[in-house]
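Risk register update: the risk that structure generation would not scale has been downgraded. Supporting records follow, first protein first.
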Amino acid sequence: MLDLERLRALHSVATYGSVSAAADVLHVTTSAVSQQLAKLERETGQKLLERNGRGVRLTDAAELLVAHAERILSLVEQAQADLEAHRGSVVGQLAVAAFPTAIRGLMPAALRALRADHPELRVQLREEDPMRSMPLVSRGDYDMAVVQDWNNEPLPMPEGLHKGVICDDVADVALPSTHPLAGRDTIHLKELAGDPWISSSSDSICCDWLIRTLRAVDSEPNIDHMAYEFATQLSLVAAGLGNAILPRLGRCDVPPGVAIVPLSAPLSRRVYAVWREEAARRPAIRATLTALRAAVPGGVPDGVPDGVPDGRRREAARVT
C-alpha cells in the first residue's frame, strides 16, 4: 500500500520544483524528503527522480503517480472535513494567511475570540499579500486566506476556492494639512492630478491598484515614496511629501499635519476569506469566518446589502 506522507513529499516536489522547496513547504529537512522519495521508489519499484543539471526532474512514472497523489490528497482532505463536520466540533489546526491591514484591524480580536470559544482549535497566522496567498491556499499551504479587492478592480478567483465576505472597507484621501484642498468636505481624484503620491511597496496589490486608479481619471501617477505600513505613509504625508489613499480598516491614529478627506466618487475594497472547496464543511472554517465578521470595527460596512434582516444578513454574506 502506498504511504500517504511519501505521496505528499512527491507531490510537493512536483508542485514546487525541487526537493529543497518541498522541504521548506513541508517544514522538514531536505534529507527527510529525499529519504521519503527513496522509500517510495522502493515501494513502487519505479525510478521517480532523475538528475537534471544541478536539480532533479520527475520521470514519466513519477508524473503518473503525482496525478493520482493529487486526487488522493484531495480525498483525504475531504474525509477530514467530513469527520470534523460529523463531530461538529471546532478542533485541529488552521493555517491562515492575511494581508497586513487585516492582520492589524481584524485578526487580533478574531483570534482572541476563537481562543476563548474554541480552545481545541490552533490557528497559525502568517502575513501574505493577496496575490501570493490565494495560490498558496489552492496548493494547500494555507487552509484560509483573508484577501481584498477593489470595487473598480476585482481580484480573479482561482478555480476550486470558495469565499465568504467579511466587510467592505472605504478609502479616503490623506492630504498634508497645508494642501489647498485639505479643508474640503469631499474631493475628486481628478482635482489632485499632478500631485505627488505615497504608495505601498511596488510588489504589492495596492501599488498596482493606485497606479491604475489614478490613470483612470487621467492623472499620471507621480509616486515619489513607497512604504508598506499605513503609519509610515501617514508620517510622510504629515511631512508634506505627498498624498495617500488609505482604507479605514486598521488605520492607525492620524498624526498632526494630516487631513483625511472622503472621496466624492467613493472607492472601497471588499475584504473576504477564501478556502478550498474540499474544506468547506470544516467547522473550523465556519467558526473563523464568523469570528472575522464579528471583529469588524464600528464604522466599517459588513458587505451585506442594507435592509436585509439580521438573520438573513448572515446568510447573504456566507458564501458567494
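Supporting record for the second protein:
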Amino acid sequence: MNILLAFKAEPDPGMLAEKDWQAATADTHGPDVSLLRCSPGADEQAAAALLLAQRNGGCEMTLTALSIGDERALHWLRYFVALGFETPVLLETTADLRFAPEFVARNIADWQRNHGADLIITGCQSSEGQNSQTPFLVAEMLAWPCFTQVERFTLEPPFIVVEQRTMTGLRRCRVRFPAVIAVRQCGEVALPVPGMRQRLAAAKADVVRRSVVVETTPAVQCLRLERPEQRRHATIISGATAQEKARRLWADYLRQRMPS
C-alpha cells in the first residue's frame, strides 16, 4: 500500500522580533520571513503521527513525503526519513505559493499519476494562505473522493476508516481506496522524535528533487500592518474611602455571586 503525505514547510512569523514587525510597517512588502526556520503545519504533523502509529501497529505500507517549496523543506524531509518514510520528494520552486492552491494541487496530482499512491494525506489548511482548497482540488483532478476535518483514521486495506468532525458531532466512514483525506489536528497525537542514529542515517539520505515552474502567481501585496490593541476588560470601582469601595464591590458584584 503506497501512501503519499503532502506537506508544506512554512515559516513561523511568531519568531519575528517586535522591531521586525515595526520596520515592516514602513512599506507594503510585509515582514521578511526568508530567514525563518520552516516547519510543517500542526495538521500535517498530526497526519504523519497517525500514519506512523498505524505502521507500528503492524500495517504494511510504503510512505512518501512530498513538499513543494525551496530548500528549507529539506530538513523536514530528512526528519520524516528518520521516522521511517521511504521516499522524500522536494518539488523545488522559489515562487510565492501562499495563494496558489491550484498549482500545488496539480503537482501533487501529477506525482500521483506518475508514481502511484493508494492514499493521499494532507492537512486541512496551511497557516499562511488558509484557503483549505488544496485537498479538494487534488481529489477533483484525480476524480477521487475527499474527506476533510479528519481527526483519526484507521487503515484496513483496501479500506480506510475515517472519523470526521462535523457540525453535528463525530462521523465515522469506511471508504475504499483510493482517496484523499485532510487531517485536522485535535491535540491527541504528537509527532515522534527520532533517535540520534536515525537522524545521522537520514542526513545522508537522497532526496528526490524536481524543479517545477509556476506560470502565473497572484500578486500579493501587504496593504497595512496594524497592531491590535490588547486591553483587559475591567470595571473601576470609585469611592471616597476604602470602606465605600468595599461596600460597592459587595453590592454590585459579590452579592449576586454568593450562593443563597
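The chain has one domain: 2-211. On this basis the risk owner (M.S.) recommends closing the item.
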